[in-house]
Design a protein that fits this description.
- This protein has one domain.
- By secondary structure, the protein is α+β, with helices and mostly antiparallel strands.
- This is DUF4252 domain-containing protein.
Length: 186
C-alpha cells in the first residue's frame, strides 16, 4: 500500500512540475531575452532614484509607497530607419502587445493610436498589485517600464508619481537612456 501512495505522490509531483513549467511568453522572459540584444537598452532602477528632499519629512503614506515599490525595469528599442530595423521594430511591438493582451495583465488605460501611443497595464488585484507596465511608442522608439512591487495599491503608485514630481528624479541615472533615445552614444 505504501508503494501505491509513493507512486501516486511521484505522479502528482511530475504533473505539477509540468504544469508549472508553462512555456507561455512572459514580459519577464522578454526583458531577459532582449536585454542581451544590441538593439535594446535595459536597466533597473531602485526607489533610491527618487530624491526625497528631506526624506525625514516623508509621511507614513509616502514611506509605505516607497516600501511597496521594489524597482523599475526599463527596456528601450530604437529603430535606426533601415528597412530591416523598421521591420524588426514592428515585429517587436507586436510581440509586446501580444504578451500584454494574452497574459494576465489588465489594461487600465490606452492613449494614442497607430504609430504613436501608450498603454498602462497591471498584474494583480486592486489592493495587491505586483506589477504596473507602461508601454510607450513613438517615431520608431518604444519603451517598456515595469514597476515591480509587493502589495502595491493604485494609491501607492500615485503617491510615488507625486514624489517623483515633487522631489525630482536623479537625471544622471537616466542619462544613458536619454542618450540612447536621442541617438548619442555617450
Amino acid at each position: 500500500m505504501k508503494t501505491i501512495y509513493y507512486l501516486f505522490g511521484l505522479v502528482v509531483m511530475a504533473v505539477l512540475t509540468l504544469v508549472s513549467c508553462e512555456s507561455k511568453p512572459s514580459l519577464q522572459k522578454y526583458f531577459v531575452e532582449k536585454s542581451q540584444s544590441n538593439e535594446f537598452m535595459a536597466f533597473d532602477l531602485g526607489t533610491d532614484i527618487i530624491k526625497a528632499a528631506g526624506s525625514d519629512n516623508l509621511s507614513a503614506d509616502q514611506e509605505k509607497a516607497l516600501k511597496a515599490v521594489r524597482k523599475l525595469n526599463i527596456l528601450i528599442f530604437k529603430s535606426d530607419s533601415t528597412d530591416t530595423n523598421v521591420v524588426h521594430y514592428k515585429e517587436e511591438t507586436t510581440k509586446v502587445k501580444s504578451i500584454l493582451k494574452n497574459g494576465d495583465y489588465e489594461e487600465l488605460m490606452r492613449v494614442g493610436s497607430g504609430k504613436e501611443g501608450a498603454s498602462i497595464n497591471m498584474l494583480g488585484e486592486n489592493d495587491d498589485i505586483d506589477e504596473f507596465v507602461v508601454f510607450l511608442r513613438k517615431d520608431g522608439v518604444f519603451g517598456l517600464i515595469r514597476v515591480l512591487g509587493d502589495e502595491m495599491t493604485p494609491t501607492d503608485v500615485l503617491t510615488i508619481m507625486q514624489l517623483v514630481e515633487k522631489s525630482g528624479v536623479d537625471m544622471a541615472q537616466l542619462q544613458p537612456a536619454l542618450n540612447q533615445i536621442n541617438g548619442n552614444k555617450g
